[in-house]
Amino acid sequence: MAISVLDTFAAPQVRGAVRTAVATPTATRRLPLAIVAAGSLGVLESIGLLAVALTGLDAVLTSFRSAGWLVAAGLVLLAGWIVLCAGSGAALIDGAGRKLLMGVAYAEMGLIAVLLVAATVLPFANPTSLPVPALGLVALAVPVAKLLLAGAPSAQRWVAAGPRVRVRRADPVRSHRMLATLTLGLIGASLCAVTILAPVPAGGINDPASAVFTQP
What pLDDT was estimated at residue 5? Predict the structure, then answer.
């Protein structure tokens, strides 16, 4: 009888300890280096694309005279490319999946291949001192690096474990409602005191605005 009573009181503690032991590795697992590198590469690529678009879009539009729908389609594709690069990197870091990042990388490799063929067949003004094959290899380095990093064993284990568990924290305003109310009241009283005790001079003789308007 005594043993059953002790088991009754000990069972909730044991279950709570087991639940804590199971939840702790999921909540405190660390990001692998491959995940950090691949996700950061996707986000940095989106920032670089946005910077290049903002700095060189005017020159492209002035040099190529084309229909308005073609320009709009190009802008939509560029914006989608930027969003997909940043979103795929963020999704990989969060553990939601790596298919989007790998799909974007494969699409970038296909685009680079098409551009290399077009640059070889059509007349192309190279703005750099590098030959066209070297430019292609430099451009291919980004999607290939994303594919290699996303295919690492640590990255696969990270994605297989699923998204990270978000630790829910209590709202500090609800937890300390009285302190928040007193702080807000103190800020309001301080602003009222500053307004009453130190009013702004209205059109004084030393006012810079009046000096500017009265200067001959």
Answer: 41
DSSP states along the chain: -HHHHHHHHHHHHHHHHHHHHHHHHHHSPPPPHHHHHHHHHHHHHHHHHHHHHHHHHHHHHHH----HHHHHHHHHHHHHHHHHHHHHHHHHHHTS-SHHHHHHHHHHHHHHHHHHHHHHHS----SSSS-HHHHHHHHHHHHHHHHHHHTSHHHHHHHHT-SPPPPP---HHHHTHHHHHHHHHHHHHHHHHHHHHSPPPSS-TT-HHHHHHH--
Q: pTM for this structure?
A: 0.60
Where are the chain's structural domains?
Answer: 30-160
- Residue pointed to by tokens 């551009």: 115
The answer to whether 188 touches 195, Cβ cutoff 8 Å, is no
Tokens of 197: 């005790």
Q: Are 178 and 77 in contact (CB under 8 A)?
A: no
Evaluated on CA atoms 158, 160, 163, 166, the torsion sign reads: negative
CB atoms within 10 A of CB 58: 9
- Is residue 4's pLDDT more than 50? no
The answer to whether 167 and 24 have CB atoms below 8 angstroms apart is no
pLDDT of residue 107: 94
Give per-residue pLDDT as tens, 64-85. Answer: 666 677 777 888 888 899 999 9
